[in-house]
Specification:
The complex is a heterodimer. Chain A is mainly alpha-helical. The N and C termini of chain A lie far apart (about 55 Å). In chain A, about 35% of the residues are buried. Chain B is mostly helical. In chain B, about 75% of the residues lie in helices and about 0% in strands. Chain B contains six helices and no strands. The longest helix of chain B is centred in the middle third of the chain and has 26 residues. Chain B is flat, with a radius of gyration of 19 Å. In chain B, about 30% of the residues are buried. The chains are: A mainly alpha, B mainly alpha.
């Protein structure tokens, strides 16, 4: 049996790597992919440290919310392609003061 | 021993695909690498005993969300820069990983569901599942409104 700490260490590595990617990449889709990876890492830690089977239902609900934000992120991506003509986050500066 | 081998394979594969996704210049390649990352995490969920989550992740994230992302990338005509990538070894590794899924020793420190428990759990949380469905529906409506509106 694999100790839960192994999964936690892997998930923390994934989270750190994905956080680095989310902070350094300018492509909106890649930032979103990194955020999704962070959500996966958090789910892994949650299940690794869980003691009951109902924790899986909790993670399922978290994934449903994540799917909702996926839909909106893709809509924003398509909107950016239509309006700004590119997907770099530098192009979104209408609210910059 | 076998579960340690699977853990090592899935974790190394997952970290490599995550690193390649972050370094990808082509958005479509990044989406494929993300799908491979999700596949490896689904194997890890199965190793922990959360086989329901492993299956749901494979079906929903890899089969649904990544497909939707790929379609959105094709619709948007995003930056598809020519990137010289040799996928052959990666695809071989992915196929080997997927083919080994039936041999994953299920079970872990998390308590696994039986089919009767799954049915009971979803009937107990049916109201919350309806609310989650409504949340998804509202995000879908918002996405449609965002794309229909001329700013």
């Amino acid at each position: 049996m694999i100790p839960a700490s192994w999964f936690v260490i892997f998930a923390m590595t994934v989270f750190a790597t994905a956080a680095y990617g989310a902070l350094t990449r300018k492509n909106i889709l890649l930032v979103f992919f990194c955020v999704e990876s962070m959500v996966m890492a958090a789910s892994l830690i949650f299940i690794a440290l869980a003691k009951t089977a109902e924790s899986q239902i909790f993670v399922l609900f978290a994934w449903v919310i994540s799917a909702g934000d996926t839909i909106l992120a893709l809509a924003i991506f398509l909107y950016m392609m239509k309006k700004a003509g590119g997907v770099e986050l530098d192009k979104i500066k209408n609210l910059k003061w | 021993m076998l579960d340690v081998v699977f853990f090592a394979m899935a974790s190394i594969f997952g970290l490599c695909s995550l690193a390649m996704m972050i370094n990808a210049k082509n958005t479509m390649h990044a989406a494929i690498y993300l799908a491979l990352f999700f596949s490896s995490t689904s194997i890890l969920f199965a190793l922990m005993g959360a086989s329901l989550l492993g299956i749901v992740q494979f079906l929903v994230f890899v089969g649904g969300i990544i497909v939707m992302v790929v379609i959105a990338i094709m619709l948007g005509g995003s930056t598809l820069e020519k990137e010289k990538n040799d996928f052959k070894m990666f695809i071989l590794a992915a196929l080997f990983l997927v083919a080994s899924i039936p041999y994953i020793p299920a079970g872990g420190e998390t308590v696994s569901f039986s089919l009767a428990e799954v049915s009971e759990a979803f009937s107990q949380y049916g109201f919350l599942a309806s609310i989650a469905g409504l949340t998804l529906f509202s995000s879908l409506v918002a996405a449609i409104y965002l794309l229909r509106r001329d700013a």
